[in-house]
Write a structure and sequence with these properties.
alpha+beta; 6-stranded mixed barrel; 26 helices
Length: 841
């Protein structure tokens, strides 16, 4: 019995040995064959490297923006819960009291956490002479923040339940792994030591795991502090824990296993309705929106542009595959005699197919390796191109396992896309040749397949060229777009005295003195304060406007706002179209006033009527305090929620001094681009308080260029690069097919010339065949570009993606390029000697 069992095992081992031996033999034959044709190998590897590299780089960018899950256990269970002001919007922060009620009533979630982004002053420790004041970014978090994430610290511990409850009594902190390395040199003794935040000592109790950034991929906090200490970190922070009006916290949760999002949303709707009945003054016209993590990111970041870019780069990969397939066909056809001989000597067709597929796999492996190198370079370049952010935020592009897996899958797919069809077609011709069977149908189908591949390459290349030209024209239009303000020669400097233990009154006084100093600096024409400089953030509030109701019946709307000082509009050169500007009489104890932009006035009050009818109109915040409109300013591009070219959003401005807040930026318009302005500003700040450091200081024009034009510029550059790569690949493929055509028609050309055909007629015959092939592809490309145009229209500004002139110019360009690519093999055809051609086999 044991001998009978051993025999099948030995047979299986022997079969496996034979299989591995045959694979090894195929690899040796394939490598030797590819070494004998270095030019062909180089073209194929470059083609695949460009296609795989470009698509991998774009996938890495899209993955970093929206697809990558949070690096915590069971990330698929994480959800986001927004408190929207009305059914018009799907986003919004929550109040602390609403969070408590929600977390106590829910049954579909394992737990809820709450957090808020904060800026913290890192003050020098007396025991460390080498430290100096700086600003870091962090999170105020509920006590279950780390436990709900199921995250264990790299060192020490995380927060205890009692540290979340004792308001102002738990000065402890967890620092990020990066801050631990940067400021403590990775010293394990950092746990238990003290650190001064906003001039109060905190005990470091733990170090977060390496790379842990919390729920948000685009924000990298350096420190985590219990929410119970918000009074020390945020001026007036304790009031935020006691007011339902103040919605400034983010709620995240972990859904129970087996619970669907629709079920969680239904429960959220019930809880929201209950709170609206209990607290109508604050919770009426609100709704909760429950979303999976990836759905939240796609909804907030938008998927249209990433989808179009991914589609375009997949076109490049398809062109590369078609190009390689046509080159493999041409090369395999040239080896027809050798393949037919192998078949005649006993090799099966499956054996020949496997040999050819092995060569395709080797080429795909080499091309994939080159693609990974190119993708790593592209992802690194994309990281450096991320626009300036005052906070450590923005997408973090990485060449991680997910991106490498994509490159591996792309390489495997190209093996089959490029090699399978050529292998089947050529081995069929080889077996027929060995059997002395002439099949005109097979040969005709092979010729048709090669011509179809080139036609598809040309069509896809034209689509990419049209898309690229549209994006480039759109970028040029945006570069000269009317912002509604003038950023030239305006410097923005932000400070936050409250990070250094300033009281609200002291903070306001500091801003006043600093503004006076800046206004008197040589070369400064005007200066002002603002909570949110253009393109450096946003802030919105829930308001209700007397006499206005949304089409959905809601009275509360979420509207962009900004706090500004007198002189703000003058500094940015924004024009008032009605009413008055703010002045020094707009104080905390005076009636609340506001200036609104044109869109606010038209959408909510006047419609198509006279804008001045909005003057004197009243709207209210959640606290029901009336705010009277005293001025109307022209529309301008506000920031990240209103990208260039999109319709203006409604915005209202309130006087800076009427509201207590600790964060502000100074805008200073200078006579020219003054050198050393940043140094002079820092000196003015240090003269008022040597401990205070600017958070950032830079020209407003740089902010506009890096942030407002970032996506249009990147899109134009990437699409242009894709189009160039596609055009090069198509021309390489065309050159290869025409060269093969000349080689396969050598006897025919020889006979024609022996019968008296002139070299010019032969040249014309080859070129006409080539140009007709390209023209066929251009027709398909035109229809494809027209079909794609609706998807491009929403991403373009003042550009028609169906512009006939664009199609004509690009088609003519491709015809000229195709003529040049075809000219070399066509000229070679005219040099064929009739006697040599008649001997050719």
């Amino acid at each position: 019995m044991s001998h009978q069992n051993r025999a099948p095992d030995n047979n299986r081992r022997f079969s496996l040995f034979l299989f591995l031996e045959s694979v090894g033999r195929d690899l040796r034959v394939g490598l030797r064959s590819l070494r004998q044709t270095p030019g062909f190998t180089f073209m194929v590897v470059v083609s695949l490297g460009l296609g795989i590299g470009a698509s991998t780089a774009i996938f890495g960018m899209i993955d970093g923006l929206v697809l990558r899950p949070v690096a915590v256990p069971h990330a698929s269970e994480l959800v986001t819960i927004d408190t929207a002001a009305s059914h018009v919007t799907k986003f919004g922060d929550s109040s602390y009291l609403d969070y408590l009620d929600y977390s106590q009533q829910t049954k579909d979630f394992l737990g809820m956490m709450i957090y808020r982004r904060v800026t913290v002053g890192l003050n020098p420790e007396p025991s460390r002479a080498d430290t100096r004041s700086s600003v870091i970014w962090g999170l105020m978090v509920s006590g279950n923040y780390f436990s709900l994430f199921e995250v264990k610290p790299a060192l020490g511990r995380t927060f205890l339940p009692e540290e979340d409850q004792a308001v102002g009594k738990a000065p402890v902190a967890v620092i990020s792994y990066e801050l631990w390395k940067r400021s403590f040199n990775g010293d394990a003794n950092a746990v238990g030591s003290s650190i001064k935040l906003n001039n109060r000592s905190y005990t470091i109790i733990g170090v977060a795991p390496r790379g842990f950034t919390g729920f948000d991929l685009s924000y990298r906090p350096d420190i985590f502090v219990p929410l119970s200490m918000i009074g020390d970190i945020v001026p007036g922070g304790q009031q935020l824990l006691q007011s339902r009006h103040s919605r400034s916290f983010v709620i995240r949760s972990r859904i129970r296993s087996g619970v669907k999002i629709s079920e969680a949303q239904a429960e959220a709707d019930v809880i929201c309705a209950n709170l609206a009945r209990q607290y109508p003054d604050t919770n009426k016209d609100t709704n909760y929106v429950v979303r999976k993590d990836v759905n939240y990111r796609t909804a907030s970041n938008g998927i249209a542009l990433p989808a179009v870019l991914m589609g375009l780069v997949l076109f490049v990969l398809l062109i590369a595959c078609a190009n390689v397939a046509s080159l493999l066909m041409a090369r395999a056809t040239a080896r027809m005699t050798g393949l037919a001989t192998q078949f005649a000597l006993g090799a099966s067709r499956i054996r020949l197919i496997r040999q050819l597929m092995t060569e395709s796999a080797i080429l795909a492996f080499l091309g994939g390796g080159c693609g990974v190198i190119l993708a790593a370079f592209g992802i690194g370049l994309a990281t450096h191109l991320v626009p300036y952010q005052p906070a450590p935020q923005g997408p973090l592009f990485e060449m991680d396992q997910r991106v490498l897996f994509y490159a591996l899958v792309a390489s495997a797919l190209t093996t089959f896309l490029c090699g399978l069809a050529p292998a089947f077609m050529v081995t069929r011709e080889a077996t027929q040749a060995a059997l002395k069977v002439r099949s005109s149908t097979t040969r005709a189908f092979g010729v048709f397949a090669r011509r179809l591949l080139i036609g598809c390459q040309v069509a896809l290349s034209l689509i990419l060229l049209v898309a690229s030209a549209s994006f480039v024209k759109s970028f040029n239009r945006l570069h000269n777009y009317d912002l509604g303000f003038n950023p030239t020669n305006v410097f923005v400097v932000t400070v936050n005295p409250s990070l250094y233990n300033y009281s609200p009154t002291q903070t306001v006084q500091f801003y006043k003195e600093l503004l006076t100093r800046v206004s008197s600096m040589a070369g400064v024409k005007s200066a002002s304060l603002a909570a949110i400089p253009p393109f450096l953030g946003l802030y919105s509030q829930d308001i209700s406007i007397d006499g206005y109701t949304t089409p959905g019946g809601d009275k509360v709307i979420d509207t962009l706002t900004n706090r500004i000082s007198p002189g703000y509009f003058e500094t940015l050169q924004m024009s008032l179209v009605g009413g008055r500007n703010f002045n020094e009489t707009d104080k905390p104890d005076s009636p609340k006033v506001a200036i609104v932009n044109e869109t606010f006035a038209r959408r909510f009050i006047t419609g198509k009527g006279n804008l001045n009818e909005a003057l004197g109109h009243v709207f209210r915040r959640r606290d029901d305090i009336p705010i009277q409109i005293v001025g109307i300013v022209k529309d301008s591009v506000y920031g990240v929620t209103t990208p260039l070219g999109s319709p203006a959003s409604p915005v209202f401005y309130v006087p800076f001094l009427q509201y207590t807040d600790s964060y502000a930026a100074i805008q200073a318009r200078t006579e020219s681009n003054i050198r050393g302005f940043n140094i002079s500003m820092t000196q003015q700040i240090h003269q008022l308080d040597p401990e205070i450091a600017p958070i950032y200081s830079l020209p407003l024009s740089t902010v506009v260029t890096e942030r407002a034009l970032y996506l249009p510029r990147v899109t134009a550059v990437l699409s242009g690069l894709f189009a160039i790569i596609a055009l090069i690949l198509a021309l390489i493929g065309l050159y290869g097919v025409i060269s093969y055509t000349v080689q396969s028609r050598t006897q025919e050309i020889g006979i024609r010339m022996a019968l008296g055909a002139q070299r010019g007629s032969v040249l014309r015959m080859i070129l006409v065949s080539s140009i007709s092939l390209v023209a066929f592809g251009l027709v398909g490309g035109i229809f494809g570009a027209l079909a794609l145009s609706p998807y491009l229209s929403g991403l373009l500004v003042s550009v028609n993606p169906r512009d006939p002139a664009t199609y004509v110019v690009l088609s003519a360009t491709m015809l000229v390029a195709a003529f040049i690519a075809s000219l070399i093999p066509a000229v070679k055809a005219t040099r064929i000697q009739p006697i040599a051609a008649l001997r050719y086999e």
